[in-house]
Design goal:
Elements (H helix, E strand, L loop, with lengths): L3 H7 L29 H8 L16 E4 L2 E4 L35 H8 L1 H9 L14 H4 L2 H9 L7
Antiparallel strand pairs: 1-2
Length: about 160
């Protein structure tokens, strides 16, 4: 027979601990605390030279750099916003919800060929300005381009503006 004192030891017991785990120390370096969040002590530590966390700039880039503890401002790094003059402009920036949806098919290479080259080819054919191979006798500037030069022009900035 089992003694009653042995049965008491088999019953699960719940212990009570008055100290916090790791004495309240946590590794908060993993968690980004932006400048506007955090305690007063945290904000004071951010102002000192030996701060633990870097200052969150919220996506704003510096307009200079630090050299020997002093900030050097570079005019080329300041963003220049160019806004067109819209005085006497007829269109308004509002689109009504009553406006019809624009449904447009995909613009393929065939559409591009038809919109740019087909008129010139048909005109050269009617005026008999093609040689025996079908090449134009009086080529336009685009027809004179070599393949690699045409690719470089297509990749250039602003080439998609017609």
């Amino acid at each position: 027979m089992i003694k009653p004192s042995a049965l008491i030891n088999l019953v699960s017991k719940r212990g009570i601990c008055l100290t916090a785990a790791r004495e309240g120390k946590r590794n908060f370096r993993k968690f980004v605390i932006p400048n506007k969040r955090g305690s007063r002590i945290h904000k004071e530590q951010q102002k000192s030279a030996n701060r633990e966390l870097e200052i969150d700039k919220r996506g704003v880039r510096d307009v200079g750099y630090y050299l020997n503890g002093k900030f050097v401002k570079v005019p080329e790094m300041i963003p220049e916003i160019i806004v067109p003059d819209l005085t006497d402009f007829k269109l308004k920036p509002y689109v009504s919800y009553k406006a019809e949806d624009v449904i447009q098919s995909e613009f393929t290479a065939e559409h591009l060929f038809n919109s740019i080259y087909s008129k010139k080819i048909a005109k050269d054919f009617k005026e008999d300005k093609l040689d025996a191979d079908g090449q134009p006798l009086e080529p336009s500037e685009e027809e004179k381009l070599q393949a690699d030069e045409a690719v470089m022009r297509a990749k250039r900035t602003g080439s998609d503006i017609f």
